[in-house]
Write a structure and sequence with these properties.
Homodimer. By secondary structure, the chain is an alpha+beta fold. It has helices at about 15-20, 80-90, 125-135, 135-145, 165-170, 195-210, 245-250, and strands spanning about 20-30, 55, 60-75, 100-105, 115-125, 150-165, 180-190, 215-220, 235-240. The protein is globular and about 45 Å long. About 45% of the residues are buried.
Length: about 250
């Protein structure tokens, strides 16, 4: 869906970052209210690390691959050109196999890297992501409808797990009609990689599962995209409202 951004400053996870030192961290947010309506959605994005949790009380899991693309739009970008860019990115899912969910929109919080827009896509397998990057249609969308309006972008991809049920896998249903996407990209110090990071991610996942009133779904994982080695991990969380991230980070 096309998303009309709301103004918000997304918080980070300070206790998590103290546990595992980072050399670089980026977070952005966008509001996704009305995401399942074709024309009037709102979305917030936050670029960060990867964690998985959800309000769905299912035990069986299904592997998915999450794709995050952050864009830096040029200063002069008309509403028409922005709509054209986001519309082509969103409708890419109808031209290529493997994409099971899409969220995108204008980033609503300030971020040190000055990213302006974000795209989140969910794929079934790593092979689907590879085919996505190589697809001529997607290359044409980037060349003709994205890069003329942007001067930079970064892609992050990671494998995670979600509940093995149609609604959470495809991010459908009433719970996904509203809320805020919170994306956090992390670059952990080499000294923190391995057991310290895994323990921290496990602790964060456990904490998120304890607050289904705030979180619809969350995924996390290690970045395997070689074009963005500066980021080691990512987290994408769908919060139920624009206030939920602040409540969660103050727990």
């Amino acid at each position: 869906m096309l998303l009309e951004a709301l103004t918000s400053t997304a918080p980070s996870f300070p206790s998590f970052r103290r546990q595992c030192p980072t050399t670089l961290s980026c977070h952005v947010s966008f509001d996704v209210s009305g995401l399942n309506t074709r024309r009037n959605p709102t979305m917030k994005v936050t670029a960060c690390s990867k964690v998985e949790s959800s309000s769905f009380p299912l035990e069986k899991k299904r592997k998915v691959v999450e794709h995050v693309c952050l864009l830096k739009a040029k200063q002069v970008l008309s509403d028409k050109d922005e709509k054209d860019m986001l519309d082509y990115l969103y409708t890419s899912q109808y031209q290529m196999r493997g994409i099971v969910a899409v969220s995108l929109g204008r980033i609503s919080n300030d971020n040190v890297e000055n990213y302006t827009h974000a795209v989140f896509m969910r794929f079934q397998t790593k092979e689907d992501v590879t085919k996505f990057y190589e697809n001529p249609f997607y290359s044409k969308v980037l060349k003709e409808h994205v890069m003329p309006y942007c001067h930079d972008l970064v892609n992050v991809d990671y494998e995670s797990e979600v509940e093995d049920d149609m609604l959470p896998i495809f991010r459908k249903g009433e719970e996904f009609n509203y809320g805020v996407e919170f994306v956090h990209l992390f670059a952990f110090d080499d000294s923190a990689l391995g057991a310290p990071v895994e323990d921290a991610l496990a602790s964060l996942e456990k904490l998120r599962k304890e607050f289904p009133s705030l979180i619809v779904q969350s995924t996390q994982g290690s970045n395997f995209n070689l074009s963005s080695k500066e980021y080691t991990h990512a987290v994408v969380t769908r919060f139920r409202s624009c206030r939920s991230p602040f409540k969660f980070c103050n727990i």
